[in-house]
Design brief:
The protein is α+β, with helices and mostly antiparallel strands and 136 residues long. It is 29% helix and 29% strand. The strands form two sheets. A six-stranded antiparallel beta sheet has the order 6-5-4-3-7-8, with helices on one face. A two-stranded parallel ribbon has the order 1-2. α1 (5-19) packs across α4.
Length: 136
């Protein structure tokens, strides 16, 4: 049986949630902002664990989704705002089979449908066009 996009999202979400505990960049790398993926470490060491913030979670999720076969054109890094909380970064994955978009967010236990989140979507960067931000 072929693994669906939803199956891959669920697996990646579990992997990343088990490997990354939230902590601010200021606390972990002594910088206000530091973007990094932990995908290679997670793939090479099933017991790997680290601390990072939402951007580390989002970048790692995106890289692992690609690694497990999701077309990069379906994967996005999304800059958003959570009302009454502040700015945030998530990974989103379009799922044409389910006609939805799944969101990997470090604030959620599972991947969540885009429409089920009360976030203000601001900009995105497609994983197959890194470096170019587009307004939502």
């Amino acid at each position: 049986m072929t693994e669906t996009i939803k199956d891959i999202n669920d697996r990646v979400k579990r992997m990343v949630s088990n490997a990354i505990t939230w902590a601010s960049d200021d606390d972990t790398v002594d910088k206000i902002e530091h973007w990094q993926s932990h995908a290679n470490r997670i793939l090479s060491d099933e017991d790997y664990h680290t601390h990072d913030d939402c951007d580390g979670f989002a970048l790692t999720s995106a890289e692992l989704c690609k690694h497990y076969g999701i077309d990069p054109s379906l994967i996005r890094i999304v800059f958003c705002e959570i009302p009454n909380t502040g700015y945030h970064l998530v990974c989103s994955v379009d799922d044409p089979d389910e006609n939805t978009t799944w969101v990997h967010c470090n604030n959620e236990r599972r991947v969540v449908k885009w429409d089920d989140l009360d976030y203000v979507w601001i900009k995105y960067m497609s994983y197959d066009n890194l470096g170019n931000w587009f307004e939502i």
